[in-house]
Amino acid sequence: MLGLDRNHVLARLEEKNASSLTGFILLAFSDRPQLELVLFVVLLIFYIFTLLGNTTIIALSHLDPHLHTPMYFFLSNLSFLDLCYTTSIVPQLLVTLRGINKSISFGGCVVQLYISLGLGGTECILLGVMAFDRYVAVCRPLHYTVIMSPHLCALMASASWFIGFDNSLFQTVLIFFLLLCGRNKIDHFFCEVPALLKLACVDTSINESEIFFVVVFILLIPVAFIMFSYGGIVRAILRIKSAAGQRKAFGTCGSHLTVVTLFYGTAIYAYLQPNNNYSQDQGMFIALFYTIVTPMINPLIYSLRNKDVKGAMKNVLWNGHDSR
Predict the structure, then answer these.
(1) 90 with 49: CB under 8 angstroms?
(2) Which of the two residues, 156 and 183, has the higher pLDDT score?
(3) Are residues 136 and 233 in contact, defined by beta-carbon separation less than 8 angstroms?
């Protein structure tokens, strides 16, 4: 039954997208039309919460002087990244879920791949930079303000953005130089590397090797750096004699470590498994998690257990109430 539904949908899509040279068809969940409405409502709610949560973190980091620290400078960068990353994917996905027209233009696909890859790569590097910030805060507390100077923070944040989008440019060019032979049906809900590689009608082993090398650099090197940083953090915490001091030190790092686990775990699953083990359905639901769910819960992770953020929210709301 599902096969018939899919064939019927594809036939109608092909009527509306006669030329394979002008764009692509995002198949997404077209073989499960009963799921599309549910996903549309759920994803719209998630997207609204993502916008509200991350905008709140950015506003608080800017408005409250107590949050003018390196940690919250990087956190506001992370929130801005999540805002942009989700916005580069979700609006197109919502349009795709709502109508029979599942198409995206060739230029739109290129731009979406470049922006989403750039923002995702930037987040990989930025989470590593945030681990270094936590390492200095726990292991070198007396020298923290000297080491984590505004100049160094700005330099590390800028380097994260540069490396992320430099990698994205390389991968985007590599993907769209492949010969597609008129294939234009992307079995995904957005233009992503593994799904686009499946459209090629030529041997992609060299491309896969080059992309694998780049992904290892962008994903695994920051993960190794984070593990090294947290090894030093754990050793430093264990040397603290008071239980209260240990809890406070663990508390400053727990939120970041949770975000790191969620982001890298899903990204590594999506990009570093063999193609013959790659299930498209699993890949789409994992992609939904790291493109939509993770950006939505990041602000919650950083705010629910964070007294500074809670205090900043009270201060901003109280001052706003007084001013009226």
Answers:
(1) no
(2) 156
(3) no
